[in-house]
Automatic annotation (TrEMBL):
This is DUF218 domain-containing protein. Gene3D superfamilies: HUPs. It comes from Stanieria cyanosphaera (strain ATCC 29371 / PCC 7437). The keyword Transmembrane helix applies. Keywords: Membrane, Transmembrane, Transmembrane helix. The keyword Lyase does not apply. Pfam families: DUF218 (PF02698). The chain crosses the membrane at residues 12-35. Residues 44-140 form the DUF218 domain. It comes from the Bacteria. One of its GO terms (cellular component) is plasma membrane. Coiled coil: none annotated. InterPro entries: Cell_Envelope_Assoc, DUF218, Rossmann-like_a/b/a_fold.
Length: 191
């Protein structure tokens, strides 16, 4: 055989192996989500994606009716505002975590997934605005789903148009990149 032919066959073989691994990993996510939802049919925590006081106020109201759920607010209003909202709703500070590590929607999830694992959370409420929910769900599918954490989404009505499919696909690809490499791609995010 010619060396060029051997290189081509090796490249083809490695490509097929890589594609097979990706398909197996992606195929396992729906299974992991189904298992988590079966084992934990009710949410165990709340994750609110920052972006408006209305989300935090909604979360405080939801937390009043679910007194056993822990709450995470990821990069939202200033800490003093969020604390005031929860204090006025009668939610103890020991129930909620204000996380400021996220710089965008992808890192809302990637910065918190280990915290959820540490607290053995397998099902959570995902709260954001309706225009933002498609992107949040796509990212959650990869980031949370790859860790066997399912979610029940609750979207708040807004007057904004839904985000474009391009933005949703971009961030879904970034979530997939994070799954494969641990890198979020936040530094090359285009607005």
């Amino acid at each position: 055989m010619k060396p060029k032919s051997i290189k081509m066959k090796s490249w083809l073989f490695l490509s097929l192996v890589g594609i097979t691994i990706i398909i197996i990993i992606l195929g396992s996510i729906p299974v992991r989500l189904a298992i988590a939802r079966y084992r934990f049919p009710q949410p165990q925590a709340i994750l609110t994606l920052g972006g408006g006081r209305d989300r935090e106020e909604f979360t405080a109201n939801l937390a009043q009716t679910h007194p056993n759920l822990l709450i995470w607010v990821s990069t939202g209003s200033p800490n003093s505002v969020v604390r005031q909202i929860f204090r006025e709703a009668g939610i103890a500070e020991t129930r909620f975590y204000l996380d400021r590590r996220a710089v965008d929607t992808v890192t809302n999830f990637t910065s918190l997934v280990k915290d959820f694992q540490k607290h053995q959370i397998k099902h959570l409420y995902l709260i954001t605005s309706d225009f933002h929910m498609s992107r949040a769900r796509a990212i959650a599918f990869f980031v949370l789903g790859s860790h066997g954490i399912t979610f029940t989404s609750i979207s708040l009505p807004s007057k904004e148009l839904p985000e474009s499919r391009l933005v949703v696909m971009r961030d879904a690809c970034r979530a997939l990149l994070w799954m494969m490499t641990g890198y979020t791609g936040a530094s090359f995010k285009v607005k």
